[in-house]
Design a protein that fits this description.
5 strands, 2 domains, 198 residues, 434 Repressor (Amino-terminal Domain), elongated
């Protein structure tokens, strides 16, 4: 599973510390920045998946920062915090494709649900390679069972160990192209059948 990196930009150090604690407990890699003028430098120096920022900061207006972020990165997920919601800032947030607009104080459970939804929408909650291994393993196991073959019988047909075959089926090991070819031959199917609709 890839590590999701989040940048929190808020001039309130207590908010930064709180978000650092909550997000780190959920397994995210978090960096906080209390100086909004340095946020763009942070984005240029490291690759973040999400930026969470306050709209009202003394150094730079939050909407100006969003505009700069979007000029630099059109795809990064942006979550806006504000203690002073207004129609103007909500409209600007829509214009700059902000992923969520959250009023302070906020409910942490609702925030976590919103963050999970955003990551899911961006395709960041799953590791594509892990998904592929699961698909291949499941399709090999299904095809093997449809033919009433045991792992031991498959090992004899392919020359692969029972242990390796079991690991491939459970997505604990990545099969080489050569191993997949042997499995396809033993099961009398096409190599591409293992990939299913992936």
């Amino acid at each position: 599973m890839r590590k999701i990196k989040i940048l929190v930009v808020d001039d309130d150090i207590d908010i930064c510390d709180y978000m650092q604690l909550v997000l780190a407990q959920n397994g995210y890699d978090v960096k906080t920045q209390i100086d909004a003028t340095k946020a763009l430098d942070d984005l240029k120096e490291d690759e973040f998946h999400v930026i969470i920022l306050d709209l009202m900061m003394p150094e730079i207006n939050g909407t100006e920062l969003i505009e700069e972020i979007r000029r630099f990165d059109k795809d990064i997920a942006i979550i806006v915090f504000t203690g002073y919601p207004s129609v103007d800032t909500a409209v600007l947030s829509l214009r700059y494709k902000v992923d969520d607009y959250i009023r302070k104080p906020f409910d942490i459970e609702e925030f976590n649900k919103s963050l999970e939804r955003i990551l899911r929408d961006k395709g960041l909650t799953r590791d594509p390679e892990e998904d592929l291994l699961i698909t291949i393993g499941k399709n090999i196991r299904t095809t093997r069972k449809e033919q009433n073959l045991t792992l031991k019988q498959m090992a004899r047909r392919t020359g692969l160990s029972v242990s390796l075959l079991s690991q491939i089926e459970r997505a604990e090991s990545s099969a080489s192209v050569s191993s997949l070819f042997k499995l396809a031959t033993a099961l009398d199917c096409k190599l591409t059948d293992f990939f299913g609709t992936y």
